Amino acid sequence: MAKYLDSAQLWVSNSQIGGHNIQIGCAGGDVNVTIEAGPDSPQSTYPRSYIADQMIRECSERRAILRRASGVTQEQANLSKEFDCNDPDDLISLGSGKVVALVGPMGAGKSDVANLWLTNRCRDFAEDDGKPLPLWIAARNISSDLETWIASRIDSSTLAEMGLSLVVDGIDETSNGAQLVEECQILVARWPKSQVMMTGRPGVFADHVECIHLESWSEDVAFEMIRKVAGSSNIYPHSFPPQIVEAVRRPLFAMLVVSLHSAHESVPQTSAGLIQHCALRSLRRSSGSWREFFPLLRRIAVSSVANDGNVALAEVGGEAIRHSLQETRLVAFSEHKVSFTLSLFEQWFAAEALLQGEVELDQIFSDLASFAKWRYVLALSLQTGSSEHIDDIMHVLTKWNPGAAAWVVREGIEWPFSNNQSSCELPGWKSVAARLHRAAASWCTGVGELTPVATVLDAGKNATDHLKLHLAVEENGKRFIYAWEQGSSGSKDIYHLSNPQELAGRGIGVGSSPAPAGDAWVWAWTLRHMRRHIEQRLPNALHLRAPLGGVIETEYMWAVIYALLRRGSFLRTEPVEVMELKALVRELQEKAREHGPVEDYAYQYGASKRITRLDLILVGEWLDRQHEGELTPPWPSINVSRPSSGWVWKFYTPERLHELTCFVYARALDAYAEMMSTLFRNFTFTLNHASLLPATLKGALHVGEGDSFTDGPVLDYCLIPLADTESSQNRVDIIIAQSREVRIPQEYEKYEPYLRRFHIDNPERAPFSFHGWTQTALHIWESRPATNIAFRWIWSDLRSLGLVKSLPRDLR
Predict the structure, then answer these.
(1) Are the beta carbons of 469 and 430 closer than 8 angstroms?
(2) Does 132 map to a domain?
């Protein structure tokens, strides 16, 4: 049974040692360690120093497996260690109660650095009784939630007394990554002596997570490493294609190049080709016919991706194939389960299965939970597939969910791989035009009501109208010129662009572009054009696409009315006479007609608001729909006539400021819902805030007592999704805080079990759902405060998908 150790004989493990599960606990100040052995093996105890050494060896073995998987020899793997980060503690400074994410693209060496960091924690643990227990967890191996997984190994008294130095590796390799991030944060809040380091790719972690970005090597260091490990002094950047020169700045790709050089094999042109070449070379190195194992490895990869982890050997051929598969170095075995040594190879074989048609797209796109398992595979397939296969996949994906499609394009083409460094020689104009037109038309169908904002199509035209593309490839085959316009029913989709001047004379813009290398470039190219349109047009389109009588329209109308009346401050809330306002609008419309048929006529009020002819029409129609003769602005009015200073918040008592804050944020939730019901209807839960709604906005308003700008009010808040997802009613629960201290993180801990249950019950919401708290200076005095807040929420969502890149501007 269990044995009791004094503080000099404490043991912690990666969950197993020598194949035996372990359990750690404390009793009476001593440490209780249970090693679950076989029926013929006695229970054993180990001194702290011995177990620390075992843990260090485990870390070293994990690092060796990562290196050897690239195909290098053991000697080369050892040589490569000279280029380790000498002291990861210089990079990662973690104190008690902290959670950080080590972030980097595929092959950047995140797991390697994490192992080095944990090695240092093991040494600390061996030398100091007060140091936390070191623990390594592969995110994919957590079969339950994190708390349950740890509680089955370490009891609560030990966690309270000592805490953990925890690594959760590969957050991006599991479909419940967002949930794991939240569970890590809750863990350190509950056991404050703990510290947690997570690893994952960029874009996986929400803004509130502290991220440490793992920088790529410099080109000089990368090639110094390649020369040293390959044993050749004649390896220089000019000998390699541009994309390979960029790729080897990440350690894994550098090791792949070493592997090929040592085998006297040529290096492919692209980083995706490098993965393919090394995977196939590993297959050929194994005994028997490598072609026999290619479909088998695709099956293993598909099963592993679909099931978030290891695959039972019995499902793919049983013990008879163990030895032959082991020779490839592509897979590893744990008891009777098989898994890939590198997630990179798993994703490549799964991508091959996808491109071979061995996986039904309908299965992947059945819901976002299924898509989340396959998203990195889909991204890699854009690098490895033919143009025909890529277009077929993206055509279906884009129509199914444009947010998911944008994510795949961003990850697969623009990041971390870049095909934009050189142009390829284009085929004939018809081939280029057909692919571009199909991609653009797919986006138009996918984005739905956002089409007039993102493309040249006008939603006000006939529903049968469609995109028309004029295109010509230049004689050298390196560039093409193009022009988009809205076609009429029955017209052709593509035309040869023989007369750019004629199109320009009709007001149609003509552009010129190189074609980046790679077969998937048309999808990145069309997405970039959409991004530019969205960034330029979305701020001015919200009120034009909003539901009548909603928050967005109402706020815009009041912004126009205040400009018409020359009210300089929204603190003024006296009523407005409808008939007088209508007379003013008619007068300005007459002046506009006298101005002549010039579309940019505007009634300018100061520098903050430009009123167009369309604004005059819209406010006139809005006034016609009002039933009262007198209109009062809907927001709570000021109630301090003689404030101690001129800051806007000083015109409100704390109670009235609280009332105004609740009013604006409740309307912001409604404004966001209006955007989701119109412009962004087709994006469903790929937009983060949408995945949390309906929700309670729970927050604390900190009201300053001084008269300086730094004493201005601050709001901390988070969104807690409601259990009843069928409800359309959002809620606001904001309190007036008693101090400036931020308490939302501690309050947030109470909701962790509920949030976990929410994701279990609503798996389709989890992949793009990031929970967290926000702290912001209170900005509720703009001309359109609720719309501004909702607009920034939607903009943040779009940035995470790659649909916008710039920062949002304030709405006027």
Answers:
(1) no
(2) yes
Sheet holding 714-721, edge to edge: 731-736, 695-702, 714-721, 773-777
pLDDT for 728: 76
Percent helix, strand, coil in the chain, to 5, is 50, 15, 35
Question: Could you list the residue range(s) of the whole structural domain that residue 58 is in?
Answer: 3-213
Please report the pLDDT score of residue 696 as a whole number: 92
**Taking a C-beta distance cutoff of 8 angstroms, is the pair 701, 735 a contact?**
yes
**Residue 737 main-chain phi, psi, to 5 deg:** -75, 150
Per-residue CA distances from 796 to 91, 178, 228, 411, 522 (Å): 28, 17, 44, 17, 25
Residue recorded with tokens 């017209």 = 491
Domain C-terminal end among 171, 193, 213: 213
Within a domain: residue 174?
yes
Return the residue matching tokens 């799964």.
Answer: 350
Strands 714-721 and 630-631: unpaired
Domain boundary among 541, 567, 582: 541
Over the stretch 303-322, which tens digit does the pLDDT of each residue have?
999 887 778 888 877 777 77
Helix (H, G, I), strand (E, B) or coil at 673: helix
Q: Each residue of 729-738: b (16+ CB within 10 Å) or e?
A: ebebebeebe
Asked if 88 and 117 count as a contact pair (C-beta separation under 8 A), the reply is yes
Residues 67 and 155 in one domain: yes
What DSSP character marks residue 543? T
Check whether residue 95 and residue 165 sit in a common domain.
yes
Per DSSP, 414 falls in state I
Which letter, b or e, does each residue of 226-262 get, where b requires 16 or more Cβ atoms within 10 Å of its Cβ? bbbbbeeeebeeeebbebbbbbbbbbbbbbbbbbbbb
Beta strands in 273-427 (DSSP E): 311-312, 331-334, 337-340
pLDDT per residue over 383-392, tens digit each?
888 999 999 9
**3-class secondary-structure state, position 468:** strand
686, 569: one domain = no
The two three-digit tokens of residue 38, written as one number: 């076989």
Backbone angles phi, psi at 715, to 5 degrees: -120, 130
Whether residue 768 contacts residue 796, with contact meaning beta carbons closer than 8 Å, is answered with no
Q: Give the H/E segment covering residue 285.
A: helix 271-285
User: Chain-centre distance of CA 799, in angstroms?
Assistant: 9
Q: Kindly report, residue by residue over 682-735, the tens digit of the pLDDT.
A: 999 999 999 999 999 999 999 877 778 888 899 989 898 987 777 778 999 999
For residue 610, give every residue at least 6 positions away whose Cβ sits within 8 Å of its Cβ, in sequence order, or none. Answer: 602, 603, 604, 812
**Bridge partners, 165 (sequence order):** 134, 195
Per-residue pLDDT of 559-618, as tens digits, reads 999 888 887 677 788 899 999 999 999 988 888 777 655 454 555 554 456 788 888 899
Q: Over the stretch 777-793, which tens digit does the pLDDT of each residue have? A: 898 987 899 999 999 99
Q: Extract long-range pairs of 601-610: CB within 8 Å, 24+ residues apart.
A: 603/563, 603/564, 605/563, 605/564, 605/566, 606/563, 606/568, 608/563, 608/783, 608/812, 609/559, 609/560, 609/562, 609/563, 609/783, 609/812, 610/812
The CB density around residue 295, as the number of other CB atoms within 10 Å, is 14
Shared domain check, 555 and 608: yes
Give me the number of domains the chain comprises. Answer: 4
Phi, psi of 209 (to 5 degrees): -85, 130
From CA 313, how far away is CA 329, in angstroms rounded? 16
The per-residue pLDDT for range 747-763, each reduced to its tens digit, is 666 776 677 678 778 88
DSSP character at residue 128: -
- The 3-state DSSP class for residue 210 equals strand
Residue among 51, 79, 49 nearest 64 (CA): 79
Looking up tokens 């009843």 gives 724
**Would the pTM of this model clear 0.70, i.e. be above it?**
yes
Q: Is residue 613 domain-shared with residue 749, that is, in the same domain?
A: no
